[in-house]
């Protein structure tokens, strides 16, 4: 089998979207190691970044086994347009903790719902994702608590979170962009796109309400094109080049 075979497989396209989100998010969020506002969150943020990378690896290993590809090759050696992550994961936070926190929260709640659905698939990938969803649920619970804690804290913390949410929400809907990979864009392929979007929104609105915050989420038109179909923003390209620098310098290096 070849890389192209994997990229045109419907299940692989959905799994790559999930794994690529976590690969890039883990890479970006690891920049906060040693810099989080308090020690508790420094440790938690670093641990979640490591979890994101390990969860991505679990999926790449499955895909590698199915398509006779090395997991490192899948993770680092694809063309830019073959990465299926949403550009939300690489939106620069400029070391603003409120943006970092809200971005991770939005992606984590989405990823958890994805693992819930992948876990229903019979066979190896279902078993893998059943294990991953438990750790993903811990991430979501932790982040929900911080959103509520800061949203109901001082006026400054509430204002900063609200500003971060306002900045990120326009990007967040593209989490639900169907990955292209030359596949038909029908409802069965999208795995209940409207249903999972509504569940994601209901969960997020419940948390925002408890935090005295507001947000309006919109599901983009199916024709809207972004990172899931390989049309990436400049900030993704910059992060990708940084992430793959060692791999390009030492092709035999393993993560």
Structural write-up:
- The structure is a single chain.
- The chain is mainly alpha-helical.
- It has one domain (3-249): Ferritin (Up-down Bundle), CATH 1.20.1260.
- The protein has ten helices and no strands.
- The protein has helices at residues 3-7, 10-29, 39-67, 71-76, 97-118, 124-151, 155-172, 193-210, 234-243, 245-249.
- The longest helix is centred in the first third of the chain and has 29 residues, at 39-67.
- It is globular.
- The relative contact order is 0.15.
Key phrases:
255 residues, mainly alpha, Ferritin
Tally of alpha and pi helices = 10
Strand-pairing-aware structural class: mainly alpha
| Helix proportion range | 55-70%
Along the chain, the helix and strand elements come as HHHHHHHHHH
**Number of beta-strand segments:** 0
List the SSEs and their pairings:
Elements: H1 3-7, H2 10-29, H3 39-67, H4 71-76, H5 97-118, H6 124-151, H7 155-172, H8 193-210, H9 234-243, H10 245-249
Give a quick precis of the structure.
By secondary structure, the protein is mainly α.
